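Practice problem: predict the structure.
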Amino acid sequence: MACFSLTLQKLVCFGFLFLAWLGLSACGPAEPKTDAPAPDMRRLTEDQYRNIIADVFGTQITVSGRFDPLVRTEGLLAVAAWNTSVSSTGIMQYEEIAQSIATQVLSKENRETYALCSGVSYTAFDESCARKFLAKVGRVLLRRPLTKDELTARITIARDSANTLGKFYAGLSFGLISLLVDPEFLFITDFTESDPARSNAIRLTAFSKAARLSFLLWNTTPDDKLLRAAESGELHSRDGLNREVNRLMASTRLKTGLRAFISDMLNFDEFDSLEKDSIIYPAFGAAVVRDAREQTLRTITDHLVTRNGDYRDLFTTKKTFMSRPLGMVYRVRVKAPDNVWESYEFAPDDPRIGIQGHLSFLALNAHPGRSSPTLRGKGIRSMLLCQKIPDPPADVDFSGFNNPESLGKTARERLLAHATNSACIGCHRIMDPIGLALENYDGAGQFRGVENDAEINSSGELDGIAFSDSTGLGQALHDNPAIPTCLVNRLYAYASGRTFTAKSDWLTYLNKVFADGGYRVTDLLKRIATSTTFYAVSSPHNLDQTFESASNIIHFD
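Answer:
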């Protein structure tokens, strides 16, 4: 139980983690000056937690349990992670998950791989082995080396537990648990120090800087090379930072980091609860749900990273990837065997175009048993154009929309009812004309030419640009200046937890960099990762208020 006493103590006193604030020396004269935010912290997302466990202990370790949900903020779960708390139930869930992980890591099957020792007694406590294991694992999990006192405290937990249980590895597991429930593991924290280059200023410590960089580009904890660059102070030099950014971006793991951002931006967490009427859409099973998400992520990362393509071309591309389950819904022949992906390109005369024509977008932005021009239009406005659409009034009656007898056979005819409702028309006139261009795809994303035996009219309009079908919509999206601007806004908010107004000098600067570089996302990522603004912090105005805020991050119901 010693481990849990330490955990409770650290949770209660968590605000004191903010005693050391830090910042970064300025560089990059082309950057506009911006107000630096106070140091902050953010909770690990579930994906980040799982990635870390897989990286540190291997993919065979199962992370089972529930995580406190995040409420999407400014269009992103990543932004919500900067302003969230953990309930008492969430704390217990973290402890249960930690116990499960520690048990697996130090099981008979895995302990020789991770414990770094040989010939250890299964009963007597071996301090040398415990020290070596806890120091190595703690350095990666806490994203910095443990202090002498911290390591001693973990060794004491392991020793006391081993003596009580009469088993060395069972005791060692409690030392590991204490690391897995440590707030410094569960929260990515901005630790700071005095900036030697600026009087009375602070900068991020090199380890906090390494964490920001790694979670942006790889969506996981810093690897050994990045931690060594932090330990040596290299990350505080322009050359050292550039060297590490280049190394991380040259890795295949860059795709993992980009996938995390795209999944957040496109609301792919909703796949976890996606349901379709199996009678109406019998081909849309669990394998299709899984592969629809994967198809879009593969298409985007291939285009943006492998091909280093123009971001805007994602809305007009015909190139994608296909699996057997998807082939049944797309109604195309797939030669590859099960669980294998093959490159695929839709024919020039095929109406499928862009990622907005993928099953992932069409099925997520539809109802369980029918399509929805409104949801699809809203999805494009909110996710791709960064425009806020208010929720419908609570007293709106939708009962007549599904009745083709009274309102019309096609969605276009039925949506005319909104044009006569003053409470609806304001929002629907900016959503429906977009979504109607995708009405040739049913609620599961399958192509159709008619609805209720009536021919579908797929013409539409986006910000004054009229088009006759989904191909025209793809080109209108490609040419819309809000498309790249939204991507820049979302990417920087995802990276930093900060949002800027459209008139921000910093966003203006990033948008110009993005445009001048041919709208290459990898170049934009590199510019952010090597910028002064990304790492800049300022001293909090009210230290007591900061401690109170930090203490409230983890609370008890």
